[in-house]
Design a protein that fits this description.
The protein has 176 residues and is mainly β. It has one helix and 13 strands, in the order H-E-E-E-E-E-E-E-E-E-E-E-E-E.
């Protein structure tokens, strides 16, 4: 009986850890037979509106601040089956990692990094493929769960959008 209670307690504790984590999410879109995929963890705001992106906010406590893993848990993974032009940055087909420089809350920069498979708080600037300015906007209401969206704009063009809390950052790209 005692070992049954210990096992039950361990299972409850493990379940609590699993549900405390930000859920995994995937965004995928095909462009002329070529697929673009973003794999990330989607944190919730959880009552922290206005307390996430400031220097003293939640993300400001990360060791990589002002570079943000653009999600939670593991670094945000990006895969493309085609070469891309992302707002003037040449991104070769294959795998990379996305980060965002949030030094200025109203002017984010998307960072495309060549290192892959790392935990989100592991960032090596020497591995940056490049950075591009994001177009910023405000949602009509706070966005509770972080969300990536890839939109087909037609003609081999698309838009990658990251939305969370009171921020929406986007970049346009062209499939080559």
């Amino acid at each position: 009986m005692k070992s049954l209670l210990i096992c039950a307690g361990a299972l409850i504790a493990a379940a609590g850890l699993v549900f405390a984590q930000s859920p995994a999410a995937t965004e995928t879109k095909a462009f002329a037979g070529k697929t673009i995929t973003i794999k990330y963890s989607s944190p919730g705001v959880k009552g922290r509106v206005g307390k996430l992106f400031t220097k003293d906010g939640q993300i400001g406590k990360d060791a990589t601040y002002p570079v943000w893993r653009a999600g939670a848990n593991a670094a945000t993974a990006f895969h493309t089956d085609a070469d891309l032009d992302v707002a003037g940055l040449a991104v070769p087909k294959g795998d990379c990692t996305l980060y965002v420089d949030i030094t200025d809350q109203d002017n984010w920069q998307l960072i495309v990094n060549k290192q892959t498979g790392q935990w989100g708080l592991t960032y090596n600037k020497a591995q940056d493929l490049g950075r591009v300015k994001m177009t910023m906007s405000k949602p009509p209401a706070p966005i509770e769960n972080l969300k990536y969206t890839i939109t087909d704009l037609g003609g081999g063009k698309g838009k990658l959008e990251l939305a969370w809390e009171n921020h929406i950052g986007s970049v346009q790209f062209t499939v080559k």
